[in-house]
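Changelog-linked ticket: MTE example.
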Amino acid sequence: MTRPDPGRVVRASRERWTRAGSVAVDRAGTPRFRSPLHDDALASWLGAALGLGFAVCFATGLLSHLAQDPPAWFSWPARPAGLYRVTQGIHVTVGLALIPLLFAKLWVVYPKLFAWPLARSGAEAMHRLLLLPLIGGAILLVVTGLGNIHLYRPWPFPFRAGHLAAAWITVGALVVHATAQARTTWRHRPRRRPASEAATPTPASPSGAPTPAPRSSAGLDRRGFVTTVFATSAAAVLLTVGQTYAPLRRLALLAPRRPDVGPQGFPVNRTAASVGLTSVDLERWRLRIDGSGVDGPLELDYHQLRALPRRTTTLPIACVEGWSTTQTWTGVPVRDLVALAGAHDPAGVTVRAMHRSARQRSSELDRAQLDDRDTLLALEVNGEPLHPDHGFPARLIGPNRPGVAQTKWVDHLEVHR
Ligand code: HEM
Ligand SMILES: Nc1nc2c(c(=O)[nH]1)N[C@H]1C(S)=C(S)[C@@H](COP(=O)(O)O)O[C@H]1N2
Ligand SMILES: [Mo]
């Protein structure tokens, strides 16, 4: 007596599904997957929305990359002051909205993987192979992005390098995929149909595939499905965008940060204690200004620094992780400090923090940011000395800078010629 081998059963039943067009059918030509949701029109609409979203994320992501590490040919402007806040806010918000769309799209198209044989021509084989980097890259992007904004990074590679590589791979594969699918998508573009046509099912594809006719099944119909998916995306946006758009802050239930919660009323990623700065001895603290761009070195103690002409300005901190907060800062313009040290037409400044541990110990000011009178070495926020976690005794705050470049606990300005 032999038991049926479960592996054989699966294999045997899979052999029964052949393909008509891109649809898996059995010998009688009946579609294997009967839900009306596995159809080309839905796949096309979701694909178009995803394509648009990926393009927006790619553009804003590349801007963020360039703003943080500008190559020689690129300069990130100091104005408008809130630009990075907007581009990075869009990046993270649109990225989150893509998650429900991505999984909906995968669900709509997965039966195509069961159509046999997998490919009938070299071109089709290429196109199908391309799905590997396309789907793999897209999932990697949203998973690493989502983890990163929640400060959860269990993967073995540096986030930025991995996320950037995934972006190029995904977008490259997406361009080819979208080009190959352009005709199908165009055929399913939304348009008004004459009443006589409205009742007829989706026309068969040119290859003669019998597209499964929408039935009134127990499950969701097409409109219900689209509504559910887009509503989920909208909810993801509404429940996070308050981390950067203050009027919606009370709704930011899914966001890791609320712009109004933290010492002095705004958030902190990295505390003073976490970089080993438990207390600062103000009598011994000095700000040092040196480098090839000044006569210096010049050293100022805290009282001398406070005695210099100060300026007050309202500027955001816009974290790369998508949260932001706008506060009113008071401090000494960096360009005045540099002039005091005897500047010779400086090209830029490296701003350094006093802690020895952890990353993000320095940032760069280029000429445009250095020349901006709102680029401050801030001593106060909202009229109070900075809280230790906000960079006491002095922090950099400048217009249109990624949050990581708003260096806290500054004690050294190195001026370059
Ligand atoms: C859930 C979705 C996503 C989230 C939450 C997210 C989040 C982030 C964050 C926080 C950064 C800044 C990292 C840093 O500078 O430390 C970033 C950078 C970036 N993202 Fe995304 N992202 C998502 C999806 C995408 C997608 C779909 C693309 C598409 C191409 C993309 C492309 C990029 C690029 C090119 C960068 C710049 C990387 C670098 O600085 O080297 N992201 N993303
Ligand atoms: N010296 C130093 N400055 C720093 C950081 C840091 O880790 N060390 N974090 C940066 C980041 S990522 C942001 S978004 C802003 C605000 O960070 P916070 O929330 O930790 O204050 O400060 C920046 N300045
Ligand atoms: Mo940040």
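Closing comment: Example verified and attached. The radius of gyration is 28 Å. Residues 4-14, 197-217 have pLDDT under 50 and may be disordered.
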